[in-house]
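Researcher: Structure for this, please.
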Amino acid sequence: MLAPAAGVVTFAGMVAGRPVLVIRHDGGIRTSYEPVVAAVHVGQPVAAGERVAVLARGHCAVRGCLHWGARRWSTYVDPLGLLGVHRRVVLLPLGGT
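Model: Predicted structure, token format:
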């Protein structure tokens, strides 16, 4: 996984049994990624496009999947909007499908 923008790593560890990485970017934006195995450490500056983690195995059946989150200050935002992609977000019900 590559950093989407320059920032500083603020967390790399376990949350609810899953490995999580958080990067603080300019403008009060924090992005989070899970489940990942971090290749960086807390306090480390990262450049856009720098390798920061690899996807951890054992989640989302065979293929695996990345959960990507974003907050601007204390408000959650759609991370795709940070990339200029604007679409309606649909949350799945508990239990999937």
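Researcher: Any notable elements?
Model: The radius of gyration is 14 Å. The domain at 7-83 is CATH 2.70.70.10 (Glucose Permease (Domain IIA)).
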